Amino acid sequence: MRISFVRSALLLFVLATCVAGGQRSPVSAGLTPERQAMLDCVSANSLRGHLSFIASDLLEGRGTPSRGLNLAAEYIAAQFRRAGLEPAGDDGYFQTAMVTARGADKPEKVRNVIGILRGSDPALKDTYILVTAHYDHLGLRLAADGTTTIYNGANDDGSGTVSVMELAGALASGKVHPKRSIVFMTFYGEERGLLGSRYYGAHPVVPVAKTIADINLEQVGRTDDTEGARIAGVSMTGFDFSDLGPILQAAGKTVGVEVSKHPRNSDAFFARSDNQALADLGVPAHTLCTAYVYPDYHAPGDHWDKVDYNNMEKVDRMVALGLLILADSPTEPRWNEANPKAARYLEAWRGMHGGVKQ
């Protein structure tokens, strides 16, 4: 009885610590108390605090390359360090590359930021799930009147960036890590043609053949979709390209978030974010998005105070549960052999696995 009491007391302490300033969710059907405790570490207030810095004027729109981008990278690395993630770059948490700014002559310490939550299972810990987002945006732009305008990029993709940080802290808070290893990574240069994710694809820090999935987070903060309010729901790009969708749908049903296929944008937007770079290598990789198009998309008005943080908390808790399900499952997501749109990715998967069938 003493052991049970101590364990219960410890769990209550973790819950109280993680949700200070917010409401604790009731334990949902199908969730263990330990998993629920991790989900409850995802906090709207914490997400707001992170994004108010990442999308502040101080970071000048996080252009690639720029001083603001470097500041963002340091902040992300600090959060990975706080969570206790294992550094996975060539320079601590940083995977370094060189990029030339538009109009410049010489290249400049652009960096992907990468940390690993090492798995707990002796066999499955050598397989990996990626959780990704791009932390760059459009930077500074010269307006017609000669003034300089900051494109803060709060939703695109500050929202995905702070979600990766928040998820890292939540999943690292458990007493026992998930069975598979989870790689938390933010990319530079998405707005310049997937530069950071393409660089990672050419210089992976974990074996691509052992990478079972990539869940990329893009524009998960704004709910004022031009098609109407988007509450408690996300769309997955390339929804039926693989069987990852139903896995996330199951997680969504548990926490009250609908994961669906947008009739037009799910397929059309598949190639418009960093998941594409991983899919080209054969990794089942998709992007989750709350609002594909919204007021201020790629405009100066995309500010942090327009984000629906309570909704983002709910979406991120769904992602957290989906990651736990994937990480603890003995089976891996597969490309859909019946969908011709997935054929090139299936061939890439077979190529990196020596031509074997899924």
Distance between the termini: 47 Å
Shape estimate: globular
* Strands, count: 13
The CATH topology: Aminopeptidase
CATH class: Alpha Beta
Topology record:
Elements: H1 2-18, H2 33-39, H3 44-54, H4 67-83, E1 86-87, E2 94-97, E3 110-117, E4 128-134, E5 139-142, E6 148-151, H5 154-172, E7 181-187, H6 195-202, E8 211-217, E9 224-225, E10 228-229, E11 233-236, H7 244-255, E12 258-260, H8 265-268, H9 275-279, E13 285-289, H10 309-328, H11 343-352
Helix pairs in contact: 1-2, 3-5, 3-10, 4-5, 5-10, 7-10
Q: What does this 3D model show about the protein?
A:
With 358 residues, this protein is of the alpha/beta class. The chain has a single domain, classed as Aminopeptidase, CATH 3.40.630. Helix content is 36%, strand content 16%. The protein contains eleven helices and 13 strands. Strands 1, 2, 3, 4, 7, 8, 11, 12 and 13 form a nine-stranded mixed β-sheet that branches. A two-stranded antiparallel ribbon has the order 5-6. A two-stranded antiparallel sheet has the order 9-10. Helix 7 links the parallel strand 11 and strand 12. Helix 1 packs parallel to helix 2 and helix 3 packs across helix 5. The longest helix has 20 residues. The protein is globular. 52% of the residues are buried. The N terminus is likely disordered.
Which key terms come to mind for this protein?
358 residues; alpha/beta; Aminopeptidase; nine-stranded mixed sheet; 11 helices; 13 strands; disordered N terminus
Short characterization:
This protein is an alpha/beta fold and 358 residues long.
